[in-house]
Amino acid sequence: MTQATIFENARLLDGTSAEGEHDRFVCVEGGLIRQVSDRPIADGTARRIDLKGKTLMPGLIDCHVHVIANSANFGQNALLPDALVALQAVKLMGEMLHRGFTTVRDVGGATHALVEAQEQGLYVGPRLVICGKALSQTGGHADFRGRYDNRRPDYQTHQLGSLGRVCDGVDACRAAARDEIRQGAQFIKIMANGGVASPTDPIAFLGFSDAEIAAIVEEAHNAQTYVSAHLYTDEGIARAVKLGVRSVEHANLVEAPTARLMRERGAIACPTLVTYEALNNEGASYGLPASSVAKIDDVRLRGLESLGILSEAGVTMAYGTDLLGAMHRHQSEEFVIRGRILPAIEVIRSATVNAAELIGMPGKIGVIKPDAYADFIVVDGDPLADLSLLTGQGRHMPVIMKNGEFIKNELN
Predict the structure, then answer these.
(1) Distance of CA 13 to the CA centre of its chain
(2) How many other C-beta atoms can be found within 10 angstroms of the C-beta atom of residue 281?
(3) Among 87, 118, 201, 316, which one is most buried in terms of CB atoms within 10 A?
(4) Is 89 left (phi over 0), alpha (psi -120 to 50) or beta?
(5) pLDDT (tens digit, 9 = 90+) per residue, 63-86?
(6) Residues 6+ apart with CB under 8 A from 148
(7) How far is CA 138 from CA 22, 53, 134, 145, 211, in A?
């Protein structure tokens, strides 16, 4: 029998209410939340931690990461030995966990082996939800060969450092989606617009035909899951949502009518504003090719405006960052960027209850309720008054817990 831990006199903040709940008592045992009460919990053997004046939050959730991306140059990253990529990914995930992110959704690159290694206790990091390799058409956002590299595109399909794989035609798209699910993908990611980091596709390019996207959506539905899509332009977003895409990544260039369509169809947006600031300031120094640097402002300058458009339409938004290599250290700054436009509680919801909904784990992560996983951060002060308390590489988090195990405990 594991010893229970009781957090006492806590201010709870998980996004389910606008102001949170004060003076609560939370009992954790066996990796789960066993009890939440407005009165002291009796247990003579439990460890007790007084949180008077502090805020107890669920572990944070980042819904757009690439844990295999230790370089901003994806073409070079795909050529690295798998062992090196895996060890770099473990380091990146450990740093994420110490920022308070207890669950992350990898949207291109990570494989089931990384998930299984964590389940076996071979490394300590956030809970990892994966799509496997992202699907791209030839010349799309996961085809990093450039103009003069005429190797067959499948040379990188099975490299851990590869973001994605290339598939063309309805039959090949079906087969690729099925193959990723066979290998452990929990959802499917497609590249449905051009991108910054890829060499031959301007932002406005549309990835895949309608028939190809519809086939991939059908395969995901048949496997009881959903499709996430890399999307920037209003045209691309509207097309993908009409075809059944559920998770719209980035969405920088969305317009109001398309945002309303997203709301009607139940699509969830996952903006990633911090990465454009980081790429603009540091991308070239970390290997981002000049052709990619030139495309950053095509999406960066509309980022904050897109938040207002999505919010006004009532679109559910999840928290995402999309950072690469050493720029991962900016992961928590997305909170502050969004806070310039959105109420603090909406930003917090994006990394808690909204993120849990997108991932497909409502009631298990992102909330402080009985039977949820015991994933917590304790924050010195009130994040509703100051979102920067969630930044600083965990400096303002004296306690971080995942699955009932202390990752960090400076209080007891």
Answers:
(1) 20
(2) 12
(3) 201
(4) alpha
(5) 999 999 998 888 889 999 999 999
(6) none
(7) 54, 55, 13, 10, 16
Please report the DSSP string for 138-193 in residue order: TTSTT----TT--S-GGGGTT-TT--EEE--SHHHHHHHHHHHHHTT-SSEEEE-B
Phi (first) and psi of residue 25, to 5 degrees: -125, 130
pLDDT above 70: percentage of residues in the chain: 100
pLDDT value, residue 36 = 98
Of 174-188, 223-237, 249-263, 282-296, which gets the smallest average pLDDT? 282-296
Asked whether residue 292 carries a pLDDT value surpassing 80, the answer given is no
Task: Give the orientation angle of helix 112-119 with respect to helix 82-97, to 10 degrees.
Answer: 60
Torsion of CA 17, 18, 20, 22, to 10 degrees: -110
Q: In angstroms, rounded to a whole number, what is the distance separating the alpha carbons of residues 269 and 246?
A: 9
Task: Give bridge partners of residue 50 from the DSSP assignment.
Answer: 8
Which of 352, 408, 306 minimizes the C-alpha distance to 99? 408
pTM over 0.70? The answer is yes
**Residues in CB range of 82: below 8 A, 6 or more apart:** 159, 160, 161
CB under 8 Å to 374, separation ≥6 — which residues? 28, 31, 32, 33, 401, 402, 403, 404
Q: How many helices (H) and strands (E) does the chain have?
A: 14, 17
pLDDT value at 339 more than 80: yes
Q: What is the pLDDT of residue 197?
A: 77
pLDDT of residue 280: 84
What proportion of the chain, given as a percentage, has pLDDT over 90?
84
What domains does the chain contain, in order, with CATH numbers? 5-59+364-409 (2.30.40.10), 60-331 (3.20.20.140)
3-class DSSP state of 351: coil
pLDDT at 295: 72
Tell me what pLDDT residue 1 has.
61
DSSP 385-409: T-GGGG-TTTTT-SEEEETTEEEEE
Rounded to 5 degrees, what angle do the CA atoms 318, 324, 326 make?
120
Question: Which ranges of 228-370 does DSSP label H, i.e. alpha helix?
Answer: 234-242, 256-265, 273-282, 290-293, 297-300, 303-313, 333-339, 344-350, 353-359
The backbone torsions φ and ψ at residue 186, rounded to the nearest 5 degrees and listed phi first, read -95, -10
